[in-house]
Design a protein that fits this description.
single chain, alpha/beta, eight-stranded mixed β-sheet, 15 helices, binds flavin-adenine dinucleotide, binds nicotinamide-adenine-dinucleotide
């Protein structure tokens, strides 16, 4: 079959670009080997945030004593599991598939493999593209080579999201975004949770203060946090999982990062390095002549907003429309723990590693009026270079929302002097940005 564009993988970015091109009248084949929509709506962002919403409600109710009277909290996972099944249509992608074909796209189910310039094969069907191929096949959970682990019935994010019951006890291997978010959810629903992280801190890609804060909060909620931990052996028996012969739990969630498999995708057929971890792209998302890549597979930030942002650039490129190139200076991310950890741009260490002469501002949320009223834990940390912010972190009850103001400041290169003399509404959480700038 000959078409204009072939899109391999219909996650958030692939769906955006394939649907956009089809709606513009191009002949598009979208290839998907699982569910149209990808990881985010079925096993990622949306169901995990629904679980978090439920867990946060429990935590909020538990805060009633001492502030507002009495509240008895009896958690039940049943409504959570039911809402997730409704939200995912029980892991059925008919609505998303119809959305794409309704725009005129051709949906092909199966695993796509690049077999030559402009050519993709799905089992015994060969597709040829006149304009090009878009690689948007995402990532899969990466399972560390720990002795015994692969033979056990461990969970990845997929099984955790599909859980119909809360385990009595849970070990979470990996204290990154997935591990931290899901550890807190299951703990708030009554599971005895231990987080085991190899590095010295939780959320190690963010500011150290963020990992330290989360550890404090987790331990106060009864979650055991083991950092700097090395797991050498895993086994499973009738009672559950055993790590290093000393740590036991009913379930084990492996959340140790993600992996790509460029060899299986056949990227060498278009001259790309099949042993690389990610597809190398330029600021127009071009990987080779007639090949674009977007989303997690590019290694520019494993977030839905990055995938969709890149997809819009690819769409413009293929349709011959003008627009700015990709710019990741103000890349925002939010870990939806409670407190939320919002961050944009560079951390202090990343800025220093780039040789930047930085000035750092920091304040505790508890010192702000709203933070004190709320009984909130969190902080604002700002990284200035050359009179503008190059990075910021906002940790707190709505850290991800407060981040909006900081993302605008980094993206727009607003002079710090202007930020210092702006009026911040009283008493809001975001007013702590002013406090940080004045605290010096
Ligand atoms: C638990 C969890 C929570 C998350 N929470 C957030 C969040 O709150 N906010 C956020 O921004 N991000 C979050 N993410 C990350 C987000 O889900 C990903 O960044 C996003 O889904 C990546 O999109 P993508 O377009 O790269 O493709 P993906 O969503 O990874 O989809 C790629 C698709 O390609 C298909 N595919 C793969 N290989 C082939 C092939 N050879 N042929 C055909 N099809 C193929 C796959 O089946 C898949 O459907 C979360 C992830 C997880 C796991
Ligand atoms: N709120 C969000 O936006 C959100 C939520 C979840 C996931 N995500 C995205 O999904 C990606 C994948 O999430 P993730 O949490 O799997 O990966 P991650 O890379 O964020 O964290 C993995 C953690 O596992 C640790 N680790 C690796 N091997 C280990 C081992 N053998 N023993 C103990 N610890 C080990 C790493 O040191 C790291 O801290 C994230 O990078 C993020 O981009 C985003």
């Amino acid at each position: 079959m000959d078409v204009d564009v072939i899109v391999i993988g219909l996650g958030p970015g692939g769906e955006e670009v394939a649907g956009g091109l089809a709606a513009a009248g191009l002949a598009v084949v979208g290839i998907e080997d699982r569910l149209v929509g990808g990881e985010c709506p079925y096993w990622g962002c949306i169901p995990s945030k629904m679980m978090i919403r439920a867990a946060d409600l429990l935590a909020e109710a538990r805060r009633v004593p001492g502030m507002a009277g009495e509240a008895e909290v009896r958690p039940s996972w049943a409504p959570v599991a039911k809402r997730l099944r409704e939200a995912t249509d029980d892991w059925d992608d008919k609505v998303a598939a119809d959305r794409f074909t309704g725009k005129g796209g051709t949906l092909v189910r199966g695993k796509g493999r690049i077999t030559g310039p402009g050519e993709v094969t799905v089992e015994d069907r060969v597709f040829r593209a006149r304009k090009g191929i878009v690689i948007s096949n995402g990532t899969a959970p990466s399972i560390p080579p720990i002795d015994g682990l692969r033979d056990t019935p461990y969970w990845t994010n997929r099984e955790a999201i599909e859980a119909t019951e809360v385990p009595e006890s849970l070990i979470v291997l990996g204290g990154g975004a997935i591990g931290a978010e899901l550890a807190q959810v299951f703990a708030r629903f009554g599971s005895r949770v231990t987080v085991v992280e190899a590095l010295p801190r939780l959320l190690s890609v963010e500011e150290p203060e963020a990992g330290d804060l989360l550890r404090e909060v987790f331990e106060a909620e009864g979650i055991t946090v083991r950092t700097g931990a090395k797991v050498e052996r895993v086994r499973h028996d009738a009672d559950g999982f055993v790590l290093n012969d000393d740590l036991r739990a009913e379930r084990l969630l492996v959340a140790t990062g993600r992996r790509t498999d460029l060899k299986a995708l056949g990227v060498a057929a278009v001259g790309l390095d099949e042993d690389a971890r990610f597809v190398d792209v330029d600021d127009r998302l071009r990987a080779a002549d007639g090949v674009w890549a977007l989303g997690d597979v590019t290694g520019k930030g494993a977030f839905t907003h990055v995938s969709v942002y890149q997809a819009r650039i690819v769409l413009r490129e293929i349709l011959g429309q003008d627009g700015p190139p990709a710019d990741y200076r103000a890349l925002p991310r939010v870990t939806f723990t409670d407190p939320e950890i919002g961050a944009v741009g560079l951390t202090e260490q990343q800025a220093r590693d780039r040789g930047m002469d930085v000035r750092v501002y920091r304040t505790d949320l508890a010192k702000s009026a709203r933070g004190w009223i709320h009984g909130a834990e969190g902080f604002i940390k700002l990284i200035e270079h050359d009179g503008v912010l190059v990075g910021a972190t906002s940790a707190g009850p709505v850290g991800g929302e407060v981040l909006g103001a900081l993302a605008v400041a980094v993206h727009g290169e607003v002079p710090v002097e202007r930020l210092r003399h702006m009026i911040y509404a009283y008493p809001t959480f975001h007013r702590a940005i002013e406090a940080a700038l004045l605290e010096d």
